[in-house]
Amino acid sequence: MGEAVRALREWQYDGAPLQLHPGDLGWYWRFGAEATAEAVRTWRRDGRILAVGLVDGPGLLRLAIAPDAEPDGELAHRMAADVTRPEVGVLPQGNAYLEARSGTLFRGLLLDGGWELDQPWTPLRRDLAEPLAGCGVRVEVTGPEGAQVRSAVQRASFDKSTFSDERWHAMAAGPTYADARCLVAYDDQGTAVAAATVWSAGPGKPGLLEPMGVHRAHRGHGYGRAITIAAAVALREMGSSSAIVCTESANAGAVATYRSAGFQQDPEVRDLRRRA
């Protein structure tokens, strides 16, 4: 796992397509170290990791490929074969989804093999060299004593969320959380109204905002914009060069929130889908 996280950190750079980030593994760590290790797939040559995948739910694989390995035909063919053969243990038989936003050759092989384009996603980024204004609300960094508040806002922000105090502690015990911060925003009455987690990939590299949510009882008051600005500030303080996030294009409210917080919208990207 340490090797996979280090590889993902090395592959992050400004201007790159948004692909699997070390923070994605960090967020998955809420399920525990063993579950995270079981969900990670790596492709190697001569001991070097060339690609990392995260099985992030039934039938969904999220991928990152080393920038210098993207045009590697041998790697692309091997990965394409592995994700299409259930016996390999990467993806199950039947409906499957693949988030692979780099690796044009690899994507082309799958499309030629019958995969199709799935729903569009919108990547957004904010250059942290630019000035950052205050967010206008009180924001606190969550420590162990605040796990209950952080998890409660998460569950109130996302339908069917299973985030809990125990899962916050599991996530915080993971090695990637040393480069992360959980933030909670409060209204004038001291009620927790929004939350976000940010993940640094190291100084001078893009940092990830994942996830961000606003309590369903407190929407429409600008708290999404406020916590997003606070997230960008936190990443800047950790030395990140930019803040990145990706959301479903169909979620127009989320796209508008990030743009209102100074994020620039990049061209849409599409995942791949294999029908049963």
From TrEMBL:
InterPro entries in the record: Acyl_CoA_acyltransferase, GNAT_dom
Origin: domain of life: Bacteria
Residue ranges of domain N-acetyltransferase in the record: 137-276
Record-linked PROSITE patterns: GNAT
Protein name: N-acetyltransferase domain-containing protein
Source species: Micromonospora lutea
